[in-house]
Amino acid sequence: MRMRMKMRRAKKNLILKCSNSWLRLEEMLQESTTSSRRRDSLSRT
């Protein structure tokens, strides 16, 4: 029984870690896109 609970907790932790990393990746992507857009606008002027 205890092992099963541990496994369940580990699974939850893994899912949380994955979702957090994905969120971070998305944030980084958004930041990079906005910075590239800024660069484009700067080069245009």
Description:
The protein has 45 residues and is mainly alpha-helical. The chain has one domain (1-45). It has one helix and no strands. The longest helix is centred in the middle third of the chain and has 43 residues, at 2-44. It is rod-shaped, with a radius of gyration of 20 Å. The chain starts with a helix and ends with a helix. The model has no long low-confidence stretch (mean pLDDT 86).
Q: Tally the helices: what do you get?
A: 1
> So what's the overall shape?
rod-shaped
The assembly state of the depicted protein chains is single chain
Judged by helices, strands and strand pairing, the structural class is: mainly alpha
Estimated helix fraction: over 70%
Mean pLDDT: 86
Question: Terminal Cα separation, in Å?
Answer: 67 Å
Radius of gyration: 20 Å
Order of helices and strands: H
Stretches with pLDDT under 50, minimum 5 residues: none
- Main sheet makeup: none
Strand content: under 5%
The number of strands is 0
Number of domains: 1
